[in-house]
Amino acid sequence: MDKSFSWWPFLPLSAVILLGIFILLCLPQSGLAAESSHSDQQLIRMSEILHDKEKALQEKESLLREKERRLMVLQKELQEKEKDIENLRQRAETVLAELKALKDEDLSRLVAVYTAMKPAAAAPLVEKLDLSYAVEVILRMQPRKAAKLLSAIESKRAAAISRSITTVSAGGNK
Q1: What distance in Å separates the CA atoms of residue 113 and residue 119, rounded to the nearest whole number?
Q2: Is the distance from CB of 123 to CB of 149 less than 8 angstroms?
């Protein structure tokens, strides 16, 4: 062989081989880089979407907390109003009991007055009373005095009082 062996003719072939190896090595990496770039973009988009959803959830959570706060305020107001209503109901019951006691007291006095009067004098007064009040007066009187008073009252009014007494007595027995 010639001592002046030259690599020059082989250089293009080795350069082509090296270029091919370089391309082979770079192509898969550039494909991976493209895929990696693509998946990075997807990850970025997913991250943005998740961030937006997290932000929306935080806003909803904030609104929910505000509604819960308002609900608690309304519940407290409702409890106070219920307490006020209960107090009013108790006062109304007390007033009604007092009125009933006064009515009973007045009725007892009226019964005592009519009982002390002669039936002929009391009859015109009982005739002018409201029917339910007249019934109460007669019912509270001693039976003998009530009978004398009823006999002195005009017959139609006495019949109405008697019917009402029957109705009250029947209602009381139920």
Answers
A1: 11
A2: yes
Task: Using the predicted structure, report yes or no on whether residue 19 has a pLDDT greater than 70.
Answer: no
Question: pLDDT tens across 21-34, in order?
Answer: 766 666 555 555 55
Residue whose tokens read 């959830």? 57
Half-sphere exposure of 62 (CA within 13 A, CB side): 6
Q: Which two tokens stand for residue 18?
A: 């090296």
Q: Give the span between the Cα atoms of 79 and 81, in whole angstroms.
A: 5
What mean pLDDT do residues 5-33 have? 59
SS (H, E, C) 56-112: HHHHHHHHHHHHHHHHHHHHHHHHHHHHHHHHHHHHHHHHHHHHHHHHHHHHHHHHH
Within 10 Å of residue 9's Cβ, how many Cβ atoms?
A: 7
Largest pairwise CA distance in the chain:
172
Q: How far apart are CA 71 and CA 159, in angstroms?
A: 62
Cα–Cα–Cα angle for 63, 65, 70, nearest 5°?
95
| Confidence (pTM) | 0.49
Q: Is the dihedral of CA 62, 65, 71, 72 positive or negative?
A: negative
The amino acid occupying position 109 is R
